[in-house]
Design brief:
The protein is mainly β. Helices cover about 10% and strands about 50% of the residues.
């Protein structure tokens, strides 16, 4: 998982930068009326709930006038529990996430509005936009499978043929971590995916760069608030109820780097 504090403060810094641009440009007249009506972008997402790369995003935007646009988008990310801890088996060299029972992937179709705060010059500069959007969240819980060693032992040593099985982690069955050989491949539990429904809302600032009217590149940073009433089970541990260990509310800070086209 990405370190929360650095990404959080980076997001705050960009938001403050945008706020400064807003203060300077509130009473300014736009430099030009946009010469395009549609914009399509795709990007890579980094967030405080994801891994090295949080996910991917595509967005379609339609210009309404010189200030306002509306958009729809869809985003696919992995959501991790903040208490996930990767450990290793010193005997086998394998690694796994302690007490993890499910991966959680989320699809986020969103609808929203975008307002130009500061329009860049025709051939250079940075354009600052503010946006607000939201929509349903479709959570997909996929079993986190491990290789567990059931080999019969006599006096602490293997006493029979090797018996290593692929199973979803269950603290009641796999309580002895020394017999967790390794994690199984990512999609080994894909045939047992369970959906769960939620909602999300985001607020952000985007900073667009580029010299060409038919292309766009930039970054977007903001906050996302997500709620799953069913309390998805990501971690499970002995002696702690699933409801107490897992959450319903998933706030995060995110940064998206995007490219796209206009026409």
């Amino acid at each position: 998982m990405l370190p929360i504090r650095p990404l959080f403060f980076f997001g705050i810094a960009l938001l403050l930068l945008g706020a400064g641009s807003v203060a300077q440009a509130q009473d300014a007249t736009p430099n030009e009326t946009p010469s395009y009506r549609k914009e399509f972008t795709y990007g890579i997402n980094f967030n405080t709930r994801g891994g090295l790369i949080g996910g991917v995003n595509v967005r379609s935007t339609r210009v309404l006038n010189d200030k306002w646009s509306r958009f729809w988008s869809i985003e696919g990310v992995e959501v991790k529990h903040p208490k996930e801890q990767r450990i290793g088996n010193q005997f086998t060299g394998g690694t796994y996430v302690l007490n993890k029972s499910n991966y959680m992937f989320v699809l986020r179709p969103s609808f929203g509005a975008q307002r130009v705060i500061f329009r860049k010059a025709p051939e250079s500069g940075v354009q600052v936009n503010a946006l607000l959007g939201g929509g349903p969240s479709v959570g997909l819980l996929m079993p986190y499978n491990i290789y567990y060693d059931y080999t019969e032992r006599v006096g602490g040593r293997p006493g029979g043929p090797e018996d290593i099985r692929t199973e979803q982690f269950d603290p009641a069955i796999h309580g002895d971590s020394q017999f967790i050989v390794d994690k199984a491949p990512l999609f080994s539990g894909a045939n047992n995916v369970k959906p769960t429904a939620g909602v999300h809302m985001r607020g952000a600032l985007s900073f667009e760069y580029g010299r060409y009217r038919d292309a766009v590149a930039g970054i977007e940073t903001g906050f996302l608030f997500e709620y799953f009433p069913s309390r998805p089970t990501i971690l499970r541990a002995t002696g702690i109820s699933d409801a107490k260990l897992n959450e319903t509310f998933f706030p995060s800070v995110y940064l998206t780097i995007y490219l796209g086209t206009r026409n």
